[in-house]
Amino acid sequence: MLTRLFVTGTDTNIGKTVVTRALLQVFNREGATAIGYKPIAIEKHETPEGIRNRDALVIHKSSPVQVDYEEINPVIWENNYEEKNRADFTQMTKGLKNLGYKADRIVIEGNGGWRMLLENETFYSDWVVQEKLPVILVVGIQEGCVNHAILTAQSIINDGVSLIGWIANRINPGLAHYAKVLERLQRHIPAPQLGEIPYLLRPEERDLSCYLDASTILAFDNSPLDD
């Protein structure tokens, strides 16, 4: 059974949170208890409940398992350029295992792209490789995305982790050659397309599960969490 997976993207602001929400909805629709996890969030937002991150709030709201916000998003950075922002892989793994005791499936959302550089001169992807997490790639359909998507897919595969597939997210409704871009991605990304999310207003409030290929996603298998 697919117990945990990592959501990455071709860039920042291309719909990783939207896809994370859609995946949680797919799993929960199938009767599994699924929860989202965003170990590190960038950009703080003050709320009556305390400092929060908007993307992490969407993930928290989309996770039916009742957990504290801090369990889903333990760390929030103002930006990724301060020396004090050092990722603690041990703490990230501890948080992942803790959620594993509370849910059947965990959807982990990354930051930026696959090769996001952290301030301690490591890549976020190093942790994904360490944890042997299978990956879903989100491709924001816009100018230049074919090159970014192919390079990202190759990098994921070369790192030795499983690329489950990719999901197209239409972030530019005015892109004239959308169908051609999609056809090129389908032809050149060495993994199946798992869904296509159209341009939507307020997707964080919608049921997005209908836009994903649930059968292919659910058929993927990976090892359960270690004790």
Automatic annotation (TrEMBL):
InterPro entries found in the cross-reference section: DTB_synth_BioD, P-loop_NTPase
Coiled coil regions, renumbered to chain: none
Q: What is its EC number?
A: 6.3.3.3
- Pathway(s) annotated for this protein in UniProt: Cofactor biosynthesis; biotin biosynthesis; biotin from 7,8-diaminononanoate: step 1/2
Listed under GO cellular component are: cytosol
Q: Which GO terms describe its biological process?
A: biotin biosynthetic process
What is the reaction catalyzed?
A: (7R,8S)-7,8-diammoniononanoate + CO2 + ATP = (4R,5S)-dethiobiotin + ADP + phosphate + 3 H(+)
For this UniProt entry, the molecular function terms from Gene Ontology, in alphabetical order, are: ATP binding; dethiobiotin synthase activity; magnesium ion binding; protein homodimerization activity
Recorded hits in Pfam families, A to Z, give:
AAA_26
Query: Which residues does ATP bind?
Result: 13-18, 55, 109-112, 169-170, 198-200
Q: What class of enzyme is it?
A: ligase
Say which domain of life the source belongs to. Bacteria
Main localisation, per the record? Answer: cytoplasm
Spell out the subunit comment. Answer: Homodimer.
Question: What protein family is recorded?
Answer: Belongs to the dethiobiotin synthetase family.
Q: What is this protein called?
A: ATP-dependent dethiobiotin synthetase BioD
Q: What is the primary gene name for this protein?
A: bioD
